[in-house]
Amino acid sequence: QPLDGELWMGRGTFERLSGVVRKQNPVEREWRAVRYKVFELPEAEGTFTQRIQQMEQWVQQAAPPWLQLVEQRRVESEAALMQWLDEVTTQGGEGLMLHYADSLYHGGRSNDLLKLKSWRDAEATVVEILPGKGKNKGRMGALLVESREGVRFRIGSGFSEEERQNPPQRGALVTFKYTGTTRRG
Question: Considering only CA atoms, which of 126, 125, 152, 154 is closest in space to residue 142?
Answer without folding.
Answer: 154
